[in-house]
Design goal:
There is one protein chain. The chain is 30% helix and 21% strand. By secondary structure, it is α/β, with parallel strands linked by helices. It has 2 domains: 9-86 and 194-265, 3-Layer(aba) Sandwich (Rossmann fold), CATH 3.40.50; 91-190, Hypothetical Protein, Haloacid Dehalogenase-like Hydrolase, Chain: A, domain 2. The strands form 2 sheets. An 8-stranded mixed beta sheet has the order 5-4-3-2-1-12-13-14. A 6-stranded mixed beta sheet has the order 8-7-6-9-11-10, covered by helices on one side. Helix 3 links the parallel strand 2 (42-46) and strand 3. The chain is globular and about 55 Å long. InterPro entries: Cof (IPR000150), HAD-like_sf (IPR036412), HAD-SF_hydro_IIB (IPR006379), HAD_sf (IPR023214). Keywords: Hydrolase. This is HAD family hydrolase.
Length: 277
């Protein structure tokens, strides 16, 4: 799987990767993305965020194509603001997962990402200020009759690493369990639904080989994408599991690591970059 000189898809995570720690996109990164697009590459955001958390970033970066959202459960058309594909958990699988979580992590709080909104039980205390208009308080996430694009499990008493270690084997093949940087939060998708699986489907639709993809990420939910791509780059600030497994590394998100790598892959006038390794 040898990458072409100019990759056809640049697949990048957002938080901790493309975005700086204050949630902005640097001028250097915007320039690098423009240069990659000018060279013929498609920019695909591959993120745990829901579509509502992607559109503004896409506008700031000039990206108007396809985004993979909610850890692969949603394919989102940025230009039309439409969800073109969704792979939710079945209600029965979600209930079984919730029962397992309650047994292994007593007191865990649950919320559901529907694709457009968040349904949150009282024990799920995490609130994102910019998202408050999209939250709905419910007695049970299973009584609302809404699609369960992503089941969120929160525990203030545990780290995400500890939660994952406690529940991954118990849930087994029933669902996909991962996490993306928020302490005490697990993100659970339907079995077989990952960022990498959805990216592969998009590549197949476009006739693109995995070797023609360059990818960037920082957290365990990015790892499958980094291993799938012809060139998968871990950010310098990445989770230890990602740093240990990824074949390539770049600078941190606050050092414009995505831009630095793209400058070495695409013909930029800035004359900066890092060698591929």
């Amino acid at each position: 799987m040898t990458p072409t000189p100019f990759p056809r898809i640049v697949a990048t995570d957002l938080d901790g990767t493309l975005l700086t720690s204050d949630g902005t996109v640097s001028p250097r990164t915007r320039q690098a993305l423009r240069a990659a697009r000018a060279a013929g590459a498609e920019i695909v955001f591959v993120t745990a965020r829901a579509p509502r958390g992607v559109r503004e970033i896409a506008a700031r970066t000039g990206v108007d194509g396809t985004a993979i959202c909610s850890n692969g459960a949603i394919v989102y058309d940025v230009a039309t603001d439409e969800i073109t594909h969704s792979s939710p958990l079945t209600p029965s699988a979600a209930r079984e997962v919730a029962e397992t979580l309650a047994q292994v992590l007593p007191g865990v709080g649950l919320a559901v990402e529907t694709g457009r909104n968040v349904l949150a039980e009282s024990a799920y205390t995490r609130r994102i200020e910019a998202d408050m208009a999209f939250y709905r308080e419910v007695a049970s996430v299973f009584d609302a009759g809404q699609p369960i694009v992503k089941l969120l499990a929160m525990s203030a008493a545990h780290t995400a690493d500890d939660m994952y270690a406690a529940v991954a084997d118990a849930i087994g093949d029933l669902a996909e369990v991962t996490y993306s940087g928020v302490e005490g939060l697990l993100e659970i998708s339907a079995a077989g639904v990952t960022k990498a699986a959805t990216l592969d489907r998009i590549c197949q639709e476009r006739g693109i080989d995995a070797g023609e993809v360059v990818a960037f990420g920082d957290m365990p939910n990015d790892l499958a994408v980094l291993m799938y791509a012809g060139a998968g780059y871990a950010m310098a600030n990445a989770h230890p599991l990602v740093l240990a497994a990824a074949r390539h590394r770049t600078l941190s998100n606050d050092e414009d690591g995505v831009a630095a790598a793209l400058e070495a892959l695409f013909p930029l006038s800035l004359g900066r970059g890092i060698p591929r390794r």
